[in-house]
Amino acid sequence: MQNGTRLIVVINGLDDPDDRAQEAKKMLEWGFRISRRGRCSPRTSSRLRQVFGGESRSVKLASREPTR
Description:
The chain has 68 residues and is of the alpha+beta class. It is 28% helix and 9% strand. It contains one helix and two strands; from the N terminus they run H-E-E.
């Protein structure tokens, strides 16, 4: 947890525990860095967000309550 933000990372496809830890650290640092961009309110949460390496290039966010 950092500044009230909690992120969860799941890593698949790496056999070495040190490689998984290093990749998870990079992903968490990136996630905390972009999470500082601001809050997402229910009115603005329907915006599309880019997805890397997924079936879709973007996803629509939805929230019943304000999020960080």
